[in-house]
Amino acid sequence: MTDTALSDQYVPGQSQGLFRVREIADNVEARPVPSTVTMPAKLNPAASRAYFFWLMVPAIVLLACISLYPFFWMIYMSLHDVEIGSTVWNNFENFTKLATDSRYLKGWWLLIQYSVMCLVLQIGIGVFLAVALNGARFEKILVTTLLMPMMMAPIVAGLVWHFLYNGTFGWYHWLLQSVGILGPKSILASTSTALIGIVIVDVWQWTPLITLITLAGLKRVPQDQLEANMVDGASQLRNFFAITLPNLYPVLLIAVMLRFMDNFRFIDSVLALTGGGPGNATKILPVYLFEVSFKFFKLGRGAAIALTLLIVTIVLGMILVRIFDRQQPRKA
Questions:
Q1: What is the CATH number of domain 100-327?
Q2: Cα torsion through 118, 121, 193, 191, rounded to 10
Q3: What is the Cα–Cα distance from 175 to 166, expressed in whole angstroms?
Q4: Whether the predicted model's global pTM rises above the 0.85 cut
Q5: Which of 27, 138, 229, 299 is the most exposed place for a label (fewest CB within 10 A)?
Q6: Where are the domains of the chain?
Q7: C-alpha to C-alpha distances, 167 to 192, 198, 231, 269, nearest whole angstrom
Q8: Strands 80-83 and 86-89, how do they pair?
Q9: Which of 112, 74, 128 lies closest to 199 in space, CA to CA?
């Protein structure tokens, strides 16, 4: 038996401590020894940027063929008199004649009136409906029902409202005539009310889009700011203008930009309702462009009109984007 084992035995009559300190050998490492973990080799190495570029090349070529080729062909046609089987350089006459074309200038004026009326009514009604639906009891059901007009094709919506406006059997014509707003003539048959009639159709169909975008923005309004303002004694109306509306500003700007671009290119419902009439009362610029290009087959002149419309749309879109960028918070 070793000396350590003998010292651990209990001997009666001798005082022995209840706890003993275990001796640690000098050869024990005080620090943990780091162990290196070997990672298994990757079967597929990381792809380079060139690999992803070549993956996108087919899509880029397809988009270029769809958008860039027609764009440059439109510029080429705008500088020529394009007839069936012949193309003759006209020394910029397609552009110089636009300045003296009364129907072209009136088309711009009608397009501005049409767009402004549509945007003002759609933003006002859309925000009101979004605030009313936010947190309502049957919010999902009501929103789904409200989106139904937007799911309808514009040409179909135009045909439906054409029958509703009909002076013989149109239900809306009968209703407006019963309350004394209209006479025996249809709303689309009068030069003073025809533009209002197509504006109502556009507002009916696309206000749900503004409502949906605004409703999504209302979900992002900070509730702590609203509650803090209410604690200070602010009313709900003051809360809306002080807290809710500034938070909705970027969302509304996006909605305005979307609807502005749509109003500058959609002609389906206008063609179905009036075709630009009566007279030229509803012949907004896109409708005039359609007539010049596809009724009279003046493709060079139509290309010049389309190019000016495209340039104005791009410039106004850039202005709206710049306004939107200014509203975004800057990174520190």
A1: 1.10.3720.10
A2: -30
A3: 12
A4: no
A5: 27
A6: 49-93, 100-327
A7: 16, 16, 56, 18
A8: antiparallel
A9: 112
